[in-house]
Specification:
This protein is 71% helix and 0% strand. The chain has 194 residues and is mainly α. Residues 142-153 have a biased composition (Basic and acidic residues).
Length: 194
């Protein structure tokens, strides 16, 4: 897989952090979408102040891509959609502050060498995101639903890992509550703006 090797080389050369590497992998040019487990890891990292800004900076960078890199843009929107629903509330806040950057993607154009309009994927996804960000009630509902689903999935997976590998089920919860506490004590959401 040359694209994976190329990405690993760039990660080394640019000395990307763990969070940045995960975002780069989730938003790669590979012809498949980001895995839900990878997006879930990234969502958990958004509760950490430093990782949050690294993640968001990398996403904005990906959203600025164009042409044959349309997958970077599309997957960045897909990841953003997931993070808005399951990550730190600061994700949605920063997206609202920079909504124009997402709105401009409704005009995204790219037709591949076979004449297929790949830009439509980006245009549709950006429209959906803008609608979600502008509808506070729907946003709250989607977040609450997504977080319930995520908790259920976590219980299922911790239950099975606990039996399989003897790992305590409280472990993931400790790290989440710690980072939530940490994030909350850091001041107003405006101070996180990347």
């Amino acid at each position: 897989m040359p694209s994976t090797i190329r990405r690993q080389m760039k990660n080394m050369v640019n000395n990307y952090s763990d969070a940045e590497k995960k975002v780069r992998e989730a938003t790669s040019n590979d012809p498949w979408g980001p895995s839900s487990s990878l997006m879930s890891e990234i969502a958990d990292l958004t509760y950490n102040v430093v990782a949050f800004s690294e993640i968001m900076n990398m996403i904005w960078k990906r959203l600025n891509d164009h042409g044959k890199n349309w997958r970077h843009v599309y997957k960045a929107l897909t990841l953003l959609d997931y993070l808005i629903k399951t990550g730190s509330e600061r994700v949605a806040l920063q997206c609202k502050e920079n909504i124009f950057a997402i709105q401009t993607l409704k005009d995204f154009q790219y037709v591949d060498k076979d004449g297929k309009d790949q830009g439509i994927n980006v245009r549709e996804k950006s429209k959906q995101l803008v609608v979600l960000l502008k509808d506070e009630e729907r946003l709250k509902g989607e977040r609450s639903q997504a977080l319930k689903t995520k908790e259920r999935m976590a219980q299922v997976s911790t239950g099975s890992t606990q039996m399989g590998f003897g790992r305590g089920s409280s472990q993931p919860n400790l790290s989440t509550s710690y980072s939530e506490e940490y994030g909350r004590s850091e001041g107003s959401p405006a101070s996180y703006h990347g």
